[in-house]
Design brief:
By secondary structure, the protein is an all-alpha fold. It has one domain. It contains 2 helices and no strands. Helix 1 crosses helix 2.
Length: about 80
């Protein structure tokens, strides 16, 4: 398998984290709000797509800020 060049690491990492978190959180919140219904999966996928777009943008904005904060409060190796 051909790998993506290292210069795209931040994009791949941020997009993958946003994907994972929005998938998990949209499912959990939907389950808590409406319970498991007949159309749960379709509602989850609709919510996931909407949430992913927001999470992706938020992740690209927040990642540099959170990285700097984490570097400030932790000791260097």
């Amino acid at each position: 398998m051909k790998k993506i060049p290292k210069r795209y690491y931040r994009i791949v990492m941020t997009a993958t984290m946003a994907l994972f978190m929005s998938f998990l959180m949209s499912g959990v919140v939907l389950l808590m709000n409406i319970g498991f219904t007949d159309d749960f999966f379709m509602r989850w996928m609709k919510a996931f797509i909407s949430v992913y777009l927001i999470a992706l943008i938020a992740s690209f904005i927040a990642t540099p800020i959170v990285t700097k904060f984490a570097q400030m409060v932790t000791e260097p190796e």
